[in-house]
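> call design_seq(struct)
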């Protein structure tokens, strides 16, 4: 069976993909970019899994990605708004696009991941937009299932990740008081969704999902602190202060420690569903307790928050129109076929002989004409932090690169090679642009812009020398 998953590298989508892959099903992960979190990389590396890079704002691209799929799991969602990523755009308009694309592609089943307390007219844009998505799905010409989970935990989650990192980083913990929750293991949620997608169970049902363990959220934090071996001072603060902290976190962090939507969720607690009338079948009832064993199974690595978690120091946080570009370009004629040139560039271990900015190659993942490469950097002969680039080959005329994870202070990268046949050989043009933030970008461009321009021009000449066999062409060691 072939199943598509929007938000496929996220928490729920990734665990559905893991379950489907283990059962031998073909999985199509729909995600706009390449998520570099450890959990997401594990999901992308699963057998029977492919990745389509598109957002849920592109109905036509979604319809193409859904071709041949019998079912779609719609897991894409956000818990804070930033720029064009609004609740209306993602939860409402995005769901409209997913439903239309699924109907157009002939998909049979659709499962939506909503939220336990989603409901209309409650004063929370998050809750209301999730409810609007439910209503859109209920009107679809598909076999639909809506699953309404509460607070989830497990490998790749935000709850254990952010709690453990906060406890490792700060000498005290600011609690929310007696706010009860029933944490749900993400594996239990994935089991219910898989039954709906593969077996066709729960058709036209709206199912609430809660874990079996009920406790105060502050007690969850205490339990996490005990598991990771940290003793911290716990301070109780009013909900109003948590809203202030959430707004600060949203303004300063790439992924907020807590968002205003999450504060609202804790304020009204997570022990009772809203407008979820159908019952979970006995064999699918969540049974995973929230205890020291399940916490250990879901904990991320032993690290706290770092400067890179702040938007000021993150790889990308600006609208691309705010970013400054620092570019270099070079053109030369090489007496080799375009295929030879572009395949040489894609052989990064060889290509680094020509590009003196590329260090040790960590890994390359190629799937036909697209893929990813992660390599260390080099700057004027010195080692630099690693970067992850995606690439797309247009056989055999063009090769495009895009930065997916770039070290600070770089905010992104775009580059390409193009080929044009001439009577003298192949005219190869290479352009590369590094994206810089608006604060320190002008200084970096003033210092290094001239160097990059000359180095890019020299790079294509080094490629020419290597491919044409010049003895002095190689500029870097193995």
């Amino acid at each position: 069976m072939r199943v598509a998953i929007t938000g496929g590298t996220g928490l729920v989508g990734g665990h559905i993909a893991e379950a489907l892959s283990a059962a031998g099903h073909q999985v199509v992960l729909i995600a706009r970019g390449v998520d570099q979190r450890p959990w997401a990389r594990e999901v992308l590396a699963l057998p029977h899994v492919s990745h389509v890079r598109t957002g849920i704002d592109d109905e036509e691209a979604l319809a193409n990605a859904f071709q041949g799929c019998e079912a779609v799991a719609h897991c894409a969602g956000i818990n804070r708004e930033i720029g064009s990523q609004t609740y209306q755009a993602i939860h409402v308009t995005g769901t409209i696009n997913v439903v239309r694309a699924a109907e157009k592609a002939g998909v049979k089943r659709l499962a939506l991941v909503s939220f336990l307390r989603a409901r209309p007219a409650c004063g929370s844009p998050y809750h209301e937009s999730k409810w609007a998505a439910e209503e859109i799905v209920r009107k679809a010409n598909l076999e639909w299932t809506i699953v309404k989970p509460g607070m989830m935990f497990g490998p790749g989650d935000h709850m254990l990740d952010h709690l453990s990192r906060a406890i490792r980083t700060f000498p005290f913990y600011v609690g929310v008081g007696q706010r009860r929750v029933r944490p749900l293991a993400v594996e239990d949620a994935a089991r219910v969704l898989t039954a709906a997608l593969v077996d066709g169970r729960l058709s036209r049902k709206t199912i609430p999902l809660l874990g079996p363990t009920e406790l105060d959220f502050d007690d969850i934090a205490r339990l996490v602190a005990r598991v990771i071996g940290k003793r911290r001072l716990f301070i109780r603060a009013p909900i109003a202060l948590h809203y202030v902290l959430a707004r600060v976190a949203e303004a300063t962090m790439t992924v907020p420690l807590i968002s205003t939507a999450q504060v609202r969720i804790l304020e009204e607690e997570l022990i009772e569903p809203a407008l979820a009338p159908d019952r979970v079948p006995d064999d699918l009832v969540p049974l995973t307790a929230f205890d020291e064993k399940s916490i250990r199974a879901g904990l991320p690595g032993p690290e706290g928050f770092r400067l890179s978690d702040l938007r000021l120091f993150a790889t990308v946080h600006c609208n691309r129109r705010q970013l400054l570009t620092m570019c270099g370009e070079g053109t030369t004629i090489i007496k080799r076929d375009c295929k030879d040139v572009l395949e040489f560039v894609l052989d990064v271990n060889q290509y680094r002989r020509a590009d003196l900015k590329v260090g040790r190659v960590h890994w390359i993942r190629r799937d036909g004409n697209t893929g990813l490469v992660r390599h260390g950097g080099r700057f004027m002969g010195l080692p630099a932090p690693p970067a992850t680039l995606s690439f797309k080959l247009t056989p055999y005329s063009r090769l495009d690169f895009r930065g997916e994870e770039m070290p600070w202070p770089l905010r992104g990268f775009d580059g390409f090679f193009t080929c044009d046949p001439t009577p003298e050989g192949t005219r190869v043009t290479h352009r590369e642009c590094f994206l810089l933030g608006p604060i320190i970008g002008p200084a970096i461009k003033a210092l290094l812009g001239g160097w990059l321009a000359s180095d890019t021009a020299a790079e294509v000449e080094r490629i020419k020398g290597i491919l044409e066999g010049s003895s002095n062409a190689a500029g870097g060691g193995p």
